[in-house]
Amino acid sequence: MKFDSKKHLILPALLATTLTMSGCGYNTLQAQDEQTAAAWSEVVNQYQRRADLVPNLVQVVERYASHEQAVFGEVAEARAKVGSVQLTPELLNDPQAMQQYQQAQGQMTSALSRLMMVSERYPELKADALFQDLQAQLEGTENRITVARNRYIEEVRSYNTTVRQFPTNLTAKVFGMQPKPNFTVDNEVAIATAPQVNFGGNNTSNDGK
Fold first, then answer.
1. 96 φ/ψ angles, rounded to the nearest 5 degrees
2. CA-based R_g, the chain, Å
């Protein structure tokens, strides 16, 4: 049997490289990067869930408040903007893209808040069973959005800490892994609690404005 010296040299080298990368946090960085991507996917899913509720919600409101065209137009514009601003996991490192996405979703939140406030002027609308069901679905979705965004914020904080700490910052630099932009401070305050979508009585909007 012929002795293959090259093979015997390659295997220890691969083992040493694996141990070195593991010790410098490469595996941790990769795992946290995947976790942030998964957390962001859930944020997107819940925002899409909200967007999907909008047409049915507008339709039932229009039955009782057909002349509220300014509000309907604002909702339609906000929904179109949300649909045009997509933020894939590959773009999460772009602060400008994150800001545009936040602004679009903030506009949608504000428009929906005003749409829900219309019901205060129409008792028949508030009593409509379909409207009540859609209102409950919207409230549940806003709660899910809050949970998903808070989870994403924490995942990004954890990842960014690893990227900046020594010695994992050296590994991150070698592999081009940069800190990720997060939701702004103002936005984090706004999402500490879910927006109120039931505007009965003395409730007020909590859309971060």
1. -65, -40
2. 24
